[in-house]
Amino acid sequence: STGKMPQGFTDVLEEWKCLEDEYQQLQDTHRMYLQKLDEISKLQNNCSSSISRQQRRLKELSHRVKNKSLSEEDAKKMDEIKEKVKTRPNAFFEMEAFLPKKNGLYLSLVLGNVNVTLFSKQSKFAYKDEYEKFKLCSTVVLLLFSFICYFFVSYRFLDAILNFQLVWYYCTLTIRESILITNGSRIKGWWVFHHYISAFLSGVMLTWPDGNLYKIFRNQFLAYSLYQSFVQCLQCYYQSGCLYRLRALGERHNLDLTVEGFQSWMWKGLTFLLPFLFFGHFWQLFNSLSLFKMAQLPDCKEWQVLMCGLCFLILFMGNFFTTVAVVRQKLKSRNQKPKSLKEQ
Q1: Which residue ranges does UniProt annotate as crossing the membrane (predicted)?
Q2: Closest CA to 159 of 222, 70, 85
Q3: Of the four, 26, 86, 116, 245, which is 20 to 30 A from 7 by CA?
């Protein structure tokens, strides 16, 4: 033996040496990463406490300046300060969207105390985009399932699967929306709250036993579900296009979402959706009145009848009055604009 190493073994040693060097580099990088994480955590705490302190002091300041008699010059300065103070809540809101915060009651119950804040604009937007896709795909599935149940099959078992899908869909929406709100989405109160009611309503429908009254209401409910899914598909499609345009023009926030209703930004180009929406709202009222009438029948023993009637009534009132308020506000501001132009 000459003590010469075989070629294959030399390659293995070289490869191992290379891996060893890379591993050392990886350890250094990881150590630096942990150090940076620690620094980030300190900066986050620093920002959060500074924002809280600023908010508290601004509140105290606004109480102190109330009803103070000032000279003309001082009053002018005070007005300037007040204008600047007005912009602060919005600035704090934008800052807080990138800081970890405690989950609200609902998220705490569902997810526990896990941090759901996404720390980059890209990941926030990607999550928002994924929410929109989920909404559209789920709505298409619900549309097809409602169509099959209405036209082709009449099994209580399949109706139960449809209602279970609805419960799962609305519950998932509420969780995702809560995460998006934590990350800076400005979703209006009612458009979130009505998902909780819809989830509850679907749950009650799921428990409604198969009987005479269920059979009477079944087709009306399936036709309503079919129509709702169709309108939601329309809205998802047109609203996302409209939001994309408005975001490109810088008129809308990156995390604005499509909703199952009407909001002020839809005024440009989406008013054609209003008749579809109002028809859906009045169908909810019709469902509610049908169920209340049904509840008065002598053979009505199921509590689900009255409960579903009440849910449909709440949905109608919330949807209808919120939409009317948005339309009224828009028409009012539209009428005020020409007046101000005339005055000029």
Answers
A1: 134-155, 191-209, 265-283, 303-327
A2: 222
A3: 26
